[in-house]
């Protein structure tokens, strides 16, 4: 007997990708040989974000060394790291005129630092070319490597995001190569390494978790000093991925937001189409964001005419 899954409700309608701004951004990403998580992860918000000229850049290639049951990014062994990628990402951010840039990555468990040095170079190149742009990084767990995390924190991103994704009971099915306690430890250590950085984490609902389990994760994150929380509905990217167990109603998301705020988070974004980087600029718009030191990368050649900082 075939298993029946719940039908997608009417409140989960996303904007279809189209328009001149969408096309312009697509051409820019292609021209710089870059990847975006918007495309690779089949994000439902790509039409909205790209038409507004915003995107989340995905560095370290387009192949992930892990095989999470919810993610549409290709799994396998990544190729060589591209050390020219940080500069190209920064140029794209500059040409888009972004006030807030989000950079994430695949997991690269096949390289010693998990790609942390490329993250740091991307932050520094962006700061060099776009000194007024705030920078958010959504990082992997680096397999618990504290030195790798310290490399990223030393570059002083304004916001450091690491998603816990789901509740501990579901990790073996949803994130088989991740560890819940490892993710909590990363967020706690990031705050200790750089108290000026806002820390952030996000979860999906609809994979079989209970409300009490979600609240327990919220409490764990709040206890580690996490500033920003995002909660969104899991949407199955293909028949090969985990099925949706149920769709949470917008009223339930509103209740989760109030309960999370009561735990002490500085900002909570919760809703069916919320993703960790969706409307990221608005998520932190009312918060006092630390302006980091405007350092430079050692050994770089002088800026060319096309690389001169904006503003």
Describe this structure in words.
There is one protein chain. The chain is an alpha/beta fold and 311 residues long. The protein has a single domain (20-288), classed as TIM Barrel (Alpha-Beta Barrel), CATH 3.20.20.70. The chain contains 11 helices and 10 strands. The chain has helices at residues 20-31, 37-40, 46-51, 85-96, 116-129, 146-154, 171-174, 180-193, 211-223, 250-262, 280-283, and strands spanning 35-36, 56-59, 63-64, 74-75, 100-105, 134-138, 159-161, 198-205, 228-233, 267-271. Strands 1-2-5-6-7-8-9-10 form an 8-stranded mixed beta sheet. The chain has a two-stranded parallel sheet with strand order 3-4. Helix 6 crosses helix 8. The mean pLDDT is 83.
Provide a brief overview of the structure.
The protein contains 11 helices and 10 strands. The chain is of the alpha/beta class and 311 residues long. Helix 9 (211-223) links the parallel strand 8 (198-205) and strand 9 (228-233).
Beta percentage is 5-15%
What is the name of the CATH architecture? Alpha-Beta Barrel
CATH class membership: Alpha Beta
What's the end-to-end separation, in Å? 63 Å
Helix/strand-derived category reads alpha/beta
Mean pLDDT: 83
Number of H- or I-type helical stretches: 11
Order of helices and strands: HEHHEEEHEHEHEHHEHEHEH
Residue windows where pLDDT falls under 50 for at least 5 positions = none
What is the helical fraction, as a range of percent? Answer: 25-40%
Order of strands across the widest beta sheet?
1-2-5-6-7-8-9-10
- At the fourth CATH level, what is the homologous superfamily? Aldolase class I
Shape type: globular
Number of domains: 1
Largest sheet composition: 8 strands, mixed
Rg on CA atoms, Å: 19 Å
Count of DSSP E strands? 10
Could you please say which CATH topology applies here? TIM Barrel
């Amino acid at each position: 007997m075939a298993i029946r899954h719940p039908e997608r409700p009417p409140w989960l309608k996303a904007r279809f990708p189209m328009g001149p701004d969408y096309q312009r951004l697509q051409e820019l990403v292609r021209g710089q040989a870059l990847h975006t998580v918007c495309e690779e992860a089949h994000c439902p918000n790509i039409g909205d974000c790209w038409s507004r000229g915003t995107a989340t850049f995905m560095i370290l290639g387009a192949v992930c060394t892990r095989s999470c049951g919810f993610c549409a990014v290709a799994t396998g062994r990544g190729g060589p790291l591209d050390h020219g990628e940080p500069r190209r990402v920064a140029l794209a951010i500059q040409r888009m005129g972004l006030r807030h840039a989000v950079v994430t990555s695949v997991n690269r468990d096949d390289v010693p630092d998990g790609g942390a040095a490329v993250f740091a170079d991307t932050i520094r190149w962006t700061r060099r070319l776009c000194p007024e742009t705030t920078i958010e990084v959504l990082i992997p767990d680096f397999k618990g490597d504290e030195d790798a995390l310290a490399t990223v924190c030393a570059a002083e991103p304004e916001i450091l995001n690491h998603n816990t994704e789901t509740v501990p009971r579901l990790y073996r099915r949803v994130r088989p190569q991740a560890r819940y306690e490892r993710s909590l430890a990363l967020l706690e250590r990031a705050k200790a390494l750089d108290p000026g950085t806002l820390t952030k984490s996000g979860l999906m609902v609809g994979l079989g978790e209970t409300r009490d389990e979600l609240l327990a994760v919220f409490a764990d994150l709040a206890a580690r000093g996490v500033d920003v929380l995002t909660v969104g509905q899991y949407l199955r990217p293909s028949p090969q991925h985990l099925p949706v167990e149920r769709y949470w109603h917008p009223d339930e998301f509103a209740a989760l937001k109030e309960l999370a705020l009561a735990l002490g988070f500085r900002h909570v974004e919760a809703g069916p189409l919320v993703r960790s980087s969706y409307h990221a600029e608005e998520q932190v718009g009312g918060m006092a964001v630390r302006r980091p030191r405007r350092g430079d990368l050692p050994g770089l050649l002088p800026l060319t005419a096309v690389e001169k900082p904006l503003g």
